[in-house]
Design brief:
Length: 354
């Protein structure tokens, strides 16, 4: 990454790094020492700043709190074997952030603020990037409305921030999921493709009900018929049936996952047949019954490649065979890990050095 300008930085005088147990990281609970903050008002982005991570004040009438004008991204930085730090596909996250911003009537974040912010912030907190297997520095860029007003209209002012946290695995064992037949994550024409806070808040109650029944996550189905697979929890869903990789085609109700894109690209590179299309719950269950469903897994930045062991459908659980060592999900997971650690060539230019 190039230094295009320098963001003023106030360094912490009390680093929390020495107190962190990197073997006991719980996802999203341990934050690195610094954060990026930049405000938008009078139709312009103001000068960004890097400051010590900490609380901030907002108006109690802050319109993001009342009406949910808030969006975010999830991305990861990795340390390679030489100790150099790379971010995985940050430009893809920037374009998705700005797509979400457009959908939520928010201003686009300029590339130089996003990229220079990442560059300086991660260099400053370089010692927070873990380098054990399965670990990464999780990066959370986000933007929210800052007008203090209760009228329902887009805010005039916003804040864009980046916070980071060292993380290990999001899921540490194969998942039990079930098809959702009553609640809906998003409908065609809604904001399901955007990474806006409300999509996640509204998913919590149905997910809680599934968790009370012993599942880890839901597989969302379409809003009109509850027939077709949409996503699984915080991930895109993928299936291997008859040696073909099948995943729901993108629509306005499905998030265009960057791990999804990467997995599809590797499958294409390896000559594996890939189908992006409507896939029904019934098709999955029939494939399970006739033995052609070889693998099911979720893919996402936080979750990486998360194998699914059991799929529930009202009244019954269907257990999938344990994928063999050379199964696609294992190979693609290892291939992505090798690209991230620098052991394999980065043929698609996904890794951006800080
Ligand atoms: C991610 O995978 O980065 C996500 O945003 C999912 C979740 C942690 C909200």
């Amino acid at each position: 990454m190039l230094d295009t300008f320098t963001i003023p930085t106030q360094r912490t005088t009390a680093s929390r790094l020495a107190a962190v147990d990197f073997d006991q990281l719980e996802f999203g609970k341990t934050f690195s020492d610094h954060m990026l903050v930049v405000d938008y008002h009078n139709g312009e982005w103001q000068e960004p700043q890097i400051v010590p991570y900490g609380d901030m004040t907002v108006s109690p009438a802050n319109s993001a709190l009342h009406y949910g004008q808030a969006i975010f991204e999830g991305m990861k930085a990795y340390k390679n074997q030489q100790g150099d730090i790379y971010i995985f596909r940050p430009y893809d996250n920037l374009s998705r952030l700005n797509l979400s911003a457009e959908r939520m009537c928010m201003p686009a974040v300029p590339e130089e603020i996003f990229m220079q912010g990442l560059n300086q912030l991660i260099r400053l907190d370089a010692e927070w990037v873990p380098n054990f297997t399965g670990s990464a520095l999780y990066i959370r860029p986000f933007m929210f409305a800052t007008d203090g007003m209760l009228g329902v209209r887009p805010s005039d002012s916003y804040r864009f921030m980046i916070i980071t946290c060292p993380v290990g695995l999001y899921y540490n064992k194969p998942l039990r999921v079930r098809f959702e037949e009553k609640y809906v994550r998003s409908a065609e024409g809604g904001a399901g493709f955007a990474k806006n806070a409300g999509n996640y808040g509204a998913a919590m109650y149905p997910t809680k009900l599934a968790q009370q029944e012993g599942y880890n996550q839901l597989i969302w189905t379409d809003a009109s018929e509850h027939k077709y697979v949409e996503e699984s929890g915080t991930m895109n869903a993928m299936f291997v049936i008859n040696d073909r990789l099948i995943t729901p085609a993108l629509s306005t109700s499905i998030l265009d996952g960057i791990t999804r894109r990467s997995v599809l690209q590797l499958a294409h590179d390896w000559g594996m047949p890939v189908e992006e299309r409507k896939v029904s719950a019934l098709e999955i269950l029939e494939a399970q019954a006739n033995g052609t469903l070889q693998e099911a897994f979720g893919v996402g930045t936080a979750a990486t490649i998360a194998p699914i062991a059991t799929i529930g459908y009202p009244g019954q659980d269907y257990t999938l065979p344990t994928p063999p060592a050379d199964a696609f999900s294992h190979r693609v997971s290892a291939a992505l890990a090798a690209i991230r650690s620098g052991e394999a060539a980065d043929q698609h230019g996904w890794m951006v050095r800080v």
